[in-house]
Amino acid sequence: MNDRMTCLLCPAGCELEVEEEGGGLRVRGHECEKGREFAESEIRNPLRNLAASVPVRGTALRMVSVRLSGPVPRDRVFPILEAIAGLRPEAPVRRGQVLIADVLGTGVDVIATRTVPQE
Ligand code: SF4
Fold first, then answer.
1. Is the pLDDT of residue 1 over 90?
2. How far is the CA of 79 from the centre of ligand 1 (A)?
3. Does the predicted TM-score (pTM) go above 0.85?
4. Mutation test residue for ligand 1: of 4, 27, 28, 31, the one with most atoms within 8 Å of CB
5. Domain annotation for the chain: domains and CATH numbers
6. I need a surface site. Which of 18, 43, 86, 88 has the fewest CB within 10 A?
7. What is the percent of the chain where pLDDT is above 90?
């Protein structure tokens, strides 16, 4: 197995080359140790975080930004985005409020990242 990827952990965007070697992974092209960890995670268990905005009921065209409480497996991102797209929380919404607990059984919550008061 030989794989190439870009490290997404900082703006340097190192181009990584990953090769299986003796049951482990050999990573080249990383400027720091985080790049090796990123490559290993991408191969063995790729995770992603995400953020979005959803409309708030009881307000005039107000949106609230949301994010996940932690990263989720990459293949769950689109189903989670669909669940988030159906969200219509009622104002007021508090920053940190859990809008979907344990979204799709991932153990991760969808939380509001700002406060939207009642109008
Ligand atoms: S390997 Fe290190 S320096 Fe390079 S992009 Fe990743 S975090 Fe940044």
1. no
2. 29
3. no
4. 31
5. 2-44 (no CATH), 51-112 (3.10.530.10)
6. 86
7. 86
